Structures are given as C-alpha cells and as structure tokens.
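WARN  no MSA supplied for this record, continuing single-sequence
INFO  ligand: zinc ion
INFO  echoing inputs
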Amino acid sequence: MTKIGLEIHCQLTKLKSKLFCSCKADYRGFEPNINICPICVGLPGSLPLLNKKAVEKAAMIAMRLGCKVPPKIGFFRKNYFYPDLPKNFQITQYNVHGPTSIGSEGQILIEDKMIRISRIQIEEDPGRLIYEGDPSKSLTTFVDYNRSGTPLVEIVTEPDFTTPKQVRTFVNILSDLLDNLGVSDTSLEGALRVDANVSIDKGEKVEIKNIGSFRNLEKAIHFELIRQESLAERGMPIPSETRQWDEGRKITISARTKEEEQDYRYFPESDVPHVLIKDQLLEKLKENMPESIISKRERYVEKYGIPNQVAEVLSTDKFYSDLFEKAHNENNAKEIANLITTDLMGLADTKEKRDQLKLKPQHLSDLADAILNNKITRISAKTAIHEIAKTGKPLSEITSELDLGRVDDESSLLNIIDEVFAEEKQAVEDAKQNIETVNYLVGKVMKKTKGKANPSVTLEIIKKKLK
Ligand SMILES: [Zn+2]
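INFO  complex generated
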C-alpha cells in the first residue's frame, strides 16, 4: 500500500525577531551575512534566549490543528555537520521522555479523509547555501547566515496520504490555515517548505527533500511512486534514502543514504530552560485567535446569504476576507463578496499585484451601494474596479470621468433600441417567433451603450416593441 507522510517547515514570518536572538526574523533583502549576531552564528560563549512569541504562535498552530499542548516544553540539540549550520547542531524539539514538543496527536480533515498530525515542533532555520549557476555543476558555493535562527515550526504528519493529489490539497488547505491564523505569510519564497516520505508495499521509506513549489510537490511524489513501483516490478530493492527533486529534469535523484534518528545524537539543550505552558496562556491565546476559515465560511453563508462557493473562495483567502470584513455592512455584504470574487481576485492574484492595489474598503462599499441603488450596472462596475485598482480615485470621480453612469431613461434607450432593430432585422424576426432569443438583442443594446443600459428596462422596451 502506498504511504505518504509529510514534514512541513513553516517560517513564523509574522514575528519580529529570530528564535533565540534579537536579529530580524525577516532576513529577506539584506546583503549576505549582515542580519547575524554571535547567538545565531553560534559563536562560543553566546547564550540563546527563547522568543516567547514564537512559543505562542506555535501553540496557536498546534491548537488549530487539534493537537495536545503539553504543560511543559523542552528543547534538544540535533547534531549534524553541514555548512549552513554554523553551530554544528540545530536547536529543535524532540519527544523522548514523553511529549515535550509544542504539539502532538492532532488531526485535520481533508475532503473526506482524516490526516493525523503526529507532532509539531519549534526549531531554528539554518542558513542558506547559494550556488553559482547550476547547483549540480557549480564549483563555488556561498553561505549566507542571514536566515540562520529564523523561527520555524515543523509539522509532521502520519503517513496517511495515499495519492499525490491528496498531498497537494492538504498543503493548500494548511497554507491557507497558517495565513489565516496570522502566523506566517506563506506566499513568501521559502516560508513554507515540504519534504515528503514515500513508500510502497515492498519498499523502504524514501524521503524527497527541497521541493520548491506545491505543484512540484505533487509531481515529485508522482514520479517517486512510479520509480518505486518499477523497481518493485523488476524485483529490485528500494533502499531507504534521501532524494532531491531535480526541477529541470522533473525527476528525483539520489542524494544520500537516509540518516536514522539515532544518527543525530539528540541531547537536551541545557542553555534553553524548559518552558511551562499554563492553561491560562492557552485560554488567552484561544480567545484572541482569528476566526477559523470554516467558521468564517459558515457565517458568510448563514448571515449574509452568500452562495457557498463564493463564501468558500472568500473565506480561504486572508487578504480578501480581511478586505471584505472592512468593507461590508448588512445590506451590501453579498454584493461585495461578489465584486471581490468575480472582479477583484483575478485582477490582483499575486502578492506583488495586491501590494500595488490602490483600492480601499470604502471603494468597494461605495461600488456595491451604487449597484444596489441602480446607479451603475455590473458591467460598468467591472470597468470601475479596474480603474480604482490602478488610480485609487473615488468612485464618483471615476464614474463621471469614464461616463459610467447607468442609462435608465426610456427615451435615450428607445433611440438605441431603434438603431439595433434597424440593424438586426433577422434577429428581430427570430425573437418574434421565439422570445427566448431576445437576449441577443439585449446584448446588442448593452454593447452599444458600453454596458451602461439598464438591462431590465431594456428588456421591457424590446418586448413591448416586439408585440
Ligand atoms: Zn542573531
């Protein structure tokens, strides 16, 4: 039977400082080896001081994933030699005498499948190796320690997945959940990294490391399953090893034989004392935790009558659901949800585009009201959103500049409809025979007015004229 388990590393990007020192947690955009201090490069004599906020954020993740949080947590040294790890050990958590990591035994429902979370641990990120050119051929490797000590949470699942697609769905849901919880901006490069353990019936566990994107994750697991099955068919052994995903060739390649846990010689990190996690702290965190995606979706459906599919799209995206929360009132909520999901999301679908967006909650609220009060058609609203997103001008200014006001009065509509009737004689005859084809004529009127005609008034006039 196919078994796939995941180890997900999530940077707590919303924290200001690193896990054990006061260097910036956001290491991005610095010159190499600037964002460092004696603690995060492990100089002799330096002492780590635990970032309490990291413990709180990790506890929130643990609770949201249904994990048990123990009354006391501890830290361990995981010993290994690698150039990106200046101390030659990583401070992490390890469950050896009972659970001392921040979370264990959780679960999360993915579609109809329950995925068990075996543990969640707090640890420090190593530095980064930067290769000159192609990593497999590069003769020069640079080390940048700016990332060293950045707070990470590792989420380890049980091997409960059986298909690559399940994995992808899970990682998508998990990244939405982490964004929504306000602990991480998972869209940042390197903020969410996944290793997958893959095994089939007759084989040992193979770990695939360093998979860059979610899409590649699905591909890498798919490739690995085929590779293992073909070995098994030929009666060849599937050794336990670590493999790398080769993005260029779309295959996994052998990297090294897999270390066993005992190879790391874990031992307690005596420089970081145990931390007591009091019930009061957990209660306080729970109270202040953002609403979950599921409860948000249900609220949108029940309170505002937003269709389930729209509510689902809106609730899973923190950026847009925050915008919705600021913009809506009881009356225009449904219209705003509509504007966001049909017009705005496609317009600003990347972080860069979202950052450049000039549209404010008030714009959306004004626009929804204008639609509801018949001042602007939905088609014109689309044009207006594009213009607001670019310029940030108030709706009233944009409506008059672009002449987007709705054409309601019968006399001006009648002139346009006469023109259309003159040009579309066959369509008029068709509509007389079969009224269902009348939308063609309405469409022509909308086109002539650049979407500004009131569709229901237009339809009425056309119907009258057809009689
Ligand atoms: Zn530091």
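Residues 18, 21, 23, 36-37, 39-40, 149 surround zinc ion (CB under 6 Å).
INFO  checksum written, moving to next record
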